[in-house]
Every structure is written in C-alpha cells, then in structure tokens.
Specification:
Blueprint lengths: L1 E6 L3 H12 L4 E7 L2 H11 L3 E5 L7 H9 L8 E6 L7 H6 L4 E4 L4 H13 L10 H9 L7 H4 L4 H11 L4 H8 L3 H15 L4 H10 L10
Parallel strand pairs: 1-2, 1-3, 3-4, 4-5
Helix pairs in contact: 2-3, 8-10, 8-11, 9-10
Length: 221
C-alpha cells in the first residue's frame, strides 16, 4: 500500500485529491496538512511514501518544507512531489534541486496524478507530466550553481552516456534500447550513477546532467 500525505492550504483541493487517491486499491491518504510546518511534523511522525506538497502555503512554504524533509537522513525514503498552479512557476526547478522528486500542475488529469504517485515510489520519477523537458532545460539554464564537472570525473564513460540519456528524459527501457543492453543493465547503470553523484533520485540526476553541461538546453534526444 502506497501511503500519501497531502499538504495544501486549500481544503477543497485536499478533499479532491483524497477522494481520487483513496479510491485506488494500492494507495491510501495517511494524513493531511494545511501548511508547511504541519507537513514537516506529520511527515516526521508518519513517514509516508509520498508527499504531495503545494508550493505556496502559509507558515512555511512548500519549498522550505521540502528542504527540511529531504535534508533529514531519517526521511530519505520519503518522496516529495510539488504541486503548482502554473507550469511556469519560478520555484519549480529550485524545488527539484532541493530534493523534490518532481512536480505536477494541479489541473493535471487524474490518471497522470496516479501514474506520478506510483512512479516516484518505483524510483522512476521523470519530473512532471504536462511540463515539457524543454521547460526543465530552461530552468536548468538559469541556475546560478557552479557546474559539477568534478563530480562527473567519478563516472565511467558508459555512466556518463547513461546520465545524458536520463537527462533528455529517457526511461530505463528506452535507454536499454538505445544502448542495446537489457533494461536491468540500464537500471544498474542509472543506480550506480546516482550513488556516485549522491543524487536522491532521477529528478536530481536530470538536474545534474544540465548543470554539469553533460546535457544542454534544447537537447531533446
């Protein structure tokens, strides 16, 4: 059973998400929170699998709450998916760099929301349905952080190749077809690359691919 915590200051939004999620045989809503402070407390208490976190909330915004959660080693297995009203939200990229596993626009189709929840639990989060890879590249291009060239020196040539393919949005199965290897081999390469770079998940690996210059804005594979 996938346990989800809903963090949003609008009760109607939480009610809508709860009705959808609780109707699934493999998902349950473990708790709700109306602000960031409450979200952090509830996550610490309940250790849900996934947090659906609104970016704009009182007391503590979703971005700061996400940082608190992802920086806590005890909560490493908790995945955070940011919720935003607008696809061009200026905080989205910063949220992903802060440890969020992806983001969704609030008016996304129900099946996309369910797919996203299941995907982050499976470790296959590829950022947001409804927000293109080109948009992610634009956020990465604006980053003020220094390039991670030194970190890439730890990778083998094949791992760099795999990281670049993750960066342009390919799944493990697509990477396997591109490199003519098995999906298991592709997954192993991705996992080793994440470990070497200290990436929390695939979303952060995508960010690192752009920030290091391994993938450049506009490269869509």
């Amino acid at each position: 059973m996938i346990r989800v915590l809903l963090a949003d200051d609008q009760s109607l939004v939480r009610a809508g998400f709860r009705a959808l999620l609780d109707a699934q045989p493999d998902i349950e809503v473990a708790a709700e929170a109306a602000d960031g402070e409450q979200a952090v407390r509830r996550v610490s208490e309940l250790r849900p699998d996934v947090v659906l976190m609104d970016i704009r909330m009182p007391a503590l915004d979703g971005l700061a709450a996400t940082r608190r959660i992802t920086e806590d080693p005890a909560l490493r297995d908790v995945k955070v998916v940011m919720l935003t009203t607008f696809e061009l939200d200026e905080y989205v990229f910063e949220a992903i760099r802060s440890g969020a596993s992806g983001f969704l626009v609030k008016d996304t189709e129900p099946e996309e929301l369910l797919r996203a929840v299941r995907a982050v639990v499976a470790g296959d989060a590829l950022l947001s349905p409804g927000v293109t890879r080109r948009l992610i590249a634009e956020f990465a291009a604006r980053s003020k952080e220094p390039a991670a060239a030194d970190a890439l020196a730890r990778l083998t040539e094949r791992e760099r190749e795999v990281m670049a393919l993750v960066g342009i949005g390919l799944s493990n199965e697509e990477i396997a077809r591109r490199l003519v290897v098995s999906p298991l081999t592709a997954k192993t390469h991705v996992s080793r690359t994440m470990v070497k770079l200290g990436a929390r998940d695939r979303a952060q690996l995508v960010v690192l691919a752009y920030e290091s210059g391994l993938v450049r804005p506009g490269w869509l594979g």
